[in-house]
Structures are given as C-alpha cells and as structure tokens.
Amino acid sequence: MNSSIKSMLVLAALSFVVLLAGCGGGEPDDTAAAGPPTAQHKNLFGGMPKVMESADNPLTDTKIALGRILYYEPRMSISGDISCNSCHLLDEFGVDGLATSPGHDGTFGVRNSPTVYNAALHIAQFWDGREPTVEAQAKGPILNPVEHGMPTAEAVEEALRGIPEYGPLFEAAFPGEEQPVTFDNVALAIGAFERKLVTRGKWDRWLNGDGNALNVQERRGLDAFMDIGCTTCHMGPNLGGSLFQKMGLVEAYPMEDKGRSEITGNAAEMYFFKVPALRIIAETGPYMHDGSIESLEEVVRIMAKHQLGKPVTDQQVTDMVVFMKALTGKLPAEYIAEPTLPGM
Amino acid sequence: MNSSIKSMLVLAALSFVVLLAGCGGGEPDDTAAAGPPTAQHKNLFGGMPKVMESADNPLTDTKIALGRILYYEPRMSISGDISCNSCHLLDEFGVDGLATSPGHDGTFGVRNSPTVYNAALHIAQFWDGREPTVEAQAKGPILNPVEHGMPTAEAVEEALRGIPEYGPLFEAAFPGEEQPVTFDNVALAIGAFERKLVTRGKWDRWLNGDGNALNVQERRGLDAFMDIGCTTCHMGPNLGGSLFQKMGLVEAYPMEDKGRSEITGNAAEMYFFKVPALRIIAETGPYMHDGSIESLEEVVRIMAKHQLGKPVTDQQVTDMVVFMKALTGKLPAEYIAEPTLPGM
C-alpha cells in the first residue's frame, strides 16, 4: 500500500469517527432556548389582540358583565338547565370534551362544539361559517331545537323580562333604550363578553421577541409545521379560523357531512369547513368537525395525509404536538368563576 | 496496493462513470406521454361541469340568449359605449389585457378585470368576494361610477324599456311576468349566459384518464406545483376560486389594497383576496389583483416566495409555466361573435 492511499484511508476512517461523534454525542438539547422569531414568523402569525374588537358592538364594562351572566344563564333554555357554558365550559378551555354535545333533551348535535376562546377573531362562526360574528352566532344555539330549544326570540325575551333583576343590568348595558331586554341585545352582550375571551402565553412572548420562551423541540415542531405546509391554512394569531378549506383536499376523507356547501349551495365548497384555530388545540379535543378523533397525534397524521399529501416521520409528529402544546396560553381567570345569576 | 483495495477503487471509478451517464445520457423525453392521472389528481382537481348550474337561476335558452345580447349592450352605460365585453372580451379569454380597466369616462379602476370564463364556479365574485354569484356581480359594474356609470337601477330599466325590441326578448326569457324588463332580470340573464362560459381542453381529457393528453414536462410542472404546495389554494376544477387567502402569507407583499377586510371589516382577513383560478391563466395576464405583474414566470416566483416561502429552481418555474399553459382550453366559439343588438 503506498503512502498516499494509506493516508486517504486514514482520513476516511477519521471522517467516519467524526461522523459517529456528530450523530451520537451531538444530540440537540431539546430544552435549550429556541432563539428569537424571524420576520417570517411574525408575518405568518401576527400578534394576538388583547381584546377582539368589533366596530358594530362597542365593548363596555356593563355590557361585558351582562354578557358574562347571560353566558351562564340556563333559563334561556326550554329545559331550564342549558346555558352557553354547558357545552363551552370556560374552565375547560371553552369545550365540553365530548365528540358532540347533548342539548336540552339529551339529543346530540352532529358537529363538535368548538371552543369560545379566541373565537371572535375567526372570519365567521360555526364549523361552516354560517354566521359572521360571535354576536350573530350567540342566537343560533339558543333557538336550536336540539340545543337550548327556545321556540322563538320572543320566548327568550319573555323569560328574561320575567326576571326583574335583569332590567337594570340591560338598562346599564344598553343605556337610553326604552325596552333593552331584547334578544338582539342578549346576542350583543354575549358577543361582547366573548370578545374578551383571549388566551395568551409563552407562544405570544416568543413571537414578541423572547427567544427563551420556546425551546428547541418546540421550535423544531414549528419548523416541521411550516415545512410540511400546515401554515398555508393555520396562519394568523389564531393559527386558523381565517379561511375555509376542503377536508380531504389531497386524499378524500370519508364523511357524510358536506360542510359549507350545505349552507351556500355552492358545489365548489363541498366538504369545506372553517380551518380550526390551533391556539389552544392541545386542550380542546376530541378533534375534527365531528369530534371523531381523540388524539392530537392522530389528527396531525390525518392532516398531513389527507390535506397535504406529505409523509411525516414519528419524530415530526411528536415535535409538532409538542409545538402545539406550547401554544396553550392562560385562560382569563376573571371570567371563569360562575357569576351570581339574577333572581336565583 | 493489495487486490481488495484495487478492486474497491475500480468499483468507485465505475460508479462514477455510471453516475455521469445517468446525468448526461438519461435526459427525460419531455414530449413523451405523461401517463394517466392518479386518484390524488382526480380528488384534488375534480371534474369541470359542462354548465355551471344555479339553483336560483334556472338556465333556459331564451334567458341565455338574452344574457348574451345584454353582455354586449353598451346602452347600459352612461356614455353609451361600455358593455361587459369592453373589459371582459370574450374573444380575448374574457379579459382586456390591461392592468386595470378604463370606465365610461376613461378613469381606471384599482383592480385587474378578471376573466368571465369559468367564473360562475367561484365561491364568490370580485377579487374580494363581495358578491356571492355572477348574477349579483353583474349589477356592480353597471352601477359603478367609474365603470358603466349608470346612476340607478331605474335608469338601466328606462334605457332598456326605451328600446322596444327588448320587450319580446325579456318576455321570452321571463315568461308570465307583467313587466319583465327589470334590472334584476338583466342580472339573471347575464348570469345565465356567464354560466355557459366554460373552457375545456387537454387538461380535462387528462383528468378523465387520457394519459397521452399531457406530456412529461407538463406533468413535471404539475408535480412541482403540487410538491411546492400551490394546490393547497389552487385546487378544484378551476384550480382556484374556492377560497380566500392572504396575499403575502409567509413574506409580506408590499401593497396598499387591504383586500377582503375592506368589505368585511374583519382584521383576520387583512390582505385576503379570492385565490385566482388558473384554468386559463396563461392567457389572462397581466397578473395579481392590481395587474402589476406582466409575466407568468414572475408570478410563479412571487407566489413561491411570498405565499409558500419555498425556493424554486429555474427548471421548476419553467415546468410550472408549461403546465399552466397546458390548462388553457378551448373557448366556447358559439358565444364569441358579437350578436345583433336590438334596435341597432
């Protein structure tokens, strides 16, 4: 063996050792700080507002306080025991943890009850976006025969007018109105309250520039989330809720629910649903429009396969779920304790 | 040098030669047949209907014929010389080739006039989706001060009622109505006509299973289009028009137009526009909501950068543009020749 070949072989052996060392000893420390966000992150996710404002429903303390009471009010249901908080429990991240929710007579709806937290920021409400705002949304379940089951708006007004303690609360919230105890005002008050239901946490601190707020694994999950293409739909401060997308885009997803096309009658929107927001997704299972999937890991795999047609490794799934858990912020504690209801 | 080392070196040299041959001599034949589509392609792009039906506006021959005449009717403009066909030229793929279009007094609009072909399939009309259907859309430009400039619906009705030859045409299209010459019926007739403006071509033959209809390069462009993630928004039979998306999603795109949020008032839709359909994109430049980009190659690069944050090679851009050219179908010839206008 001549010396040049010998030295080449030595070099190769050395490279191999270095390579091994790189693979073995150089494992990234998943708990180290992720470092600051980039301009791309800030552009993609934007900032979460403190309050989700409305040009049509100015927020006042009295209106918000009334809305909070009405949110917990079971006398706006035909059975007298269903309130907004029955299915959207404020101390449970705004959900009931069920696939679908039972109404006043125990009949279950067909779609999963989504969280009320951060919901006012969505482009529209309900899975199919059939109402534009939280104010408009608030009326739906109260009159829905399998939810609160109130027969008419007038029946709601009659029920509330029968509780004299409500009068001053509505008068304070809607000053100058001759008869403020109306179904429209119920919706405005509940909507105003819901506009305060914002969650914030370390994800927001990270987006604001605190490079220590996320760790390396969470950041790796975010990188995978972006690389695979999840952010094409799950963008903005709510990581979703900004657009409608077809479920089963790349690979058909077996389901009977036709989604948004049932509302719009437009074939181009067959199987379209509002893209769910991920801001507190780790706490708001089960998942999908019908609550059929228990595990977040499984949803991530379903999304990669059916929505993006992209392979994902086990490590990527793990990292993405860790990232999603890092999104969970603090609930606004001041609204969670059940208020004293008028006349009760 | 011992024999085992010698043979290893020979093997390495041979591998190198094989590798070179693979790179050089094995060039794919870009003009060969692409082969048939997969289930994924069919699911992603679906089938283009022959007619874009409407549950609210049943299509009849008399209504379509009237709509075709009205489409070319300049007397529904204050200057007497602007018709739908002034900006959406049917013999020019439904566009005027300008960045933005001049109205009755030469004032230009602020957004690019999109093609009318295949438009009825969109989830909504206009760049910001402010009207739900082609019927609702048809009214907008007629009353827009910088387009047709008609002051009121009544003025349109007066103009058409002043042309006695229109009476029987409206009566035939809207039988049984006492006064069928109405602005609402104008919109229904034009909408009905537009629902026939479908383009079809080799892309459709390919999707229907003809593996010879696309060639290898076109298919490679489609593969890149899907791999990069374009199909997350440009899906369905129209390769777009199914959802609203933020322009500058990954990297902010400098522009003043706030898009859909100007209509909805919802901050979550800031810079959102309807995703343009690509079915005849190669013929409908210039591009973007403001018509600011001349070349399709440049748009592809802008989209990859600002919407997806993905690097693209020159070859990928070339292939994707070749793919988009392959989408261009035949115009429905029977509607293109200008009809004889009543009383002219």
In short:
2 copies of one chain form a homodimer. Chain A has 344 residues and is an all-alpha fold. Helices cover 39% and strands 2% of the residues of chain A.
Q: What oligomerization state is this entry in? A: homodimer
Q: Using a beta-carbon cutoff below 8 angstroms, give the protein chain pair with the largest interface and the number of residues from each chain.
A: A-B, 43 and 43 residues
Counting H and I runs of at least 4 residues, what is the number of helices of chain A?
13
Per CATH, the class of the largest domain in chain A reads Mainly Alpha
The proportion of residues forming helix of chain A, as a percent range, comes to: 25-40%
The fold-level CATH name of the largest domain in chain A is Cytochrome Bc1 Complex, Chain D, domain 2
The rounded distance between the terminal residues' Cα atoms of chain A is 97 Å
Number of separate strands of chain A: 2
Report the principal-axis shape of chain A. globular
